[in-house]
Specification:
PQQ biosynthesis, mainly alpha, globular, 11 helices, PqqC-like, binds pyrroloquinoline quinone
């Protein structure tokens, strides 16, 4: 593996949110219904901002091929039509957990720390370089394994959330693999100087902090 790729992969290995105490408690079956509902509600704020940050990334891409590739991400979340896509599936996860979709859509109850963390991610993609914006999505190299652990934990420990609610995670396993493969190839191709590479690593660290801060806020609140 090229040394820059190894440097990138080492960042989430050390500080991705699969290591966060809230996730460890989730996987061990220790979360209360209120905690799990709080997580779903607050994570919806992250989910609905993913296509917003992806639109900022899209605007930085210089070729039709790259823009077409990135547009697919926006469509994965927003769907090709109303009632489709990842945001809709997250709303259904909320409903399966007893949360009204209107509550999630209202934004009521989103914690201040979660708002700050998500703003931080969107602003990095708005104001950063192309390499920084794309590198910050590379936490997704680790997301598919985490999704699989989460699906197993939900089935085992939280059966009160119906199977339909887990579709978001099931579909996301393959999407995350494709997204992270494409993003990694783009960063390896475009980060040519030492300075570009250092910025890419710093952006990925920052993104790990975004996900960590989100869980810190949820962990402290319910
Ligand atoms: O539940 C998770 O642990 C998790 C993590 C991440 C991530 O690593 O940023 C994403 C997602 N889920 C996710 O569902 C998703 O759509 C997504 C998009 C992105 C991104 O940075 O472009 N990350 C993630």
């Amino acid at each position: 593996m090229n040394p820059f790729e190894a440097e990138l992969r080492a960042v989430p290995e050390e500080r991705y949110h699969h290591l966060h105490p809230f996730n460890l408690r989730m996987h061990a079956g220790e979360l209360s219904q209120a905690e799990l509902r709080g997580w779903i509600l607050n994570r919806f704020h992250y989910q609905r901002n993913i296509p917003v940050k992806d639109a900022h990334v899209l605007a930085k891409l210089p070729t039709s091929d790259l823009r077409r590739m990135w547009l697919r991400r926006i469509q994965d979340h927003d769907g090709a039509a109303p009632g489709e896509g990842g945001i809709e599936r997250w709303l259904r996860l909320g409903e399966a957990a007893g949360l009204d979709r209107d509550l999630l859509l209202s934004g009521e109850g989103v914690l201040p720390g979660v708002r700050m963390a998500v703003d931080g991610y969107v602003n990095l993609c708005r104001n950063g370089t192309l390499v920084e914006a794309v590198a910050s999505s590379l936490t997704e190299l680790f997301a598919p394994d985490l999704m699989r652990t989460r699906i197993a934990a939900f089935e085992k420990h939280y059966p009160w959330i119906g199977a339909e609610g887990l579709r978001y995670f099931r579909i996301r396993v393959d999407q995350g693999r494709q997204d992270s493969g494409e993003a990694l190839a783009l960063v390896l191709d475009r980060a040519r100087t030492r300075e570009d590479r250092d910025r890419a690593v710093a952006a990925l660290r920052f993104k790990c902090d975004v996900l960590w801060a989100l869980l810190d806020a949820v962990d402290g609140a319910y």
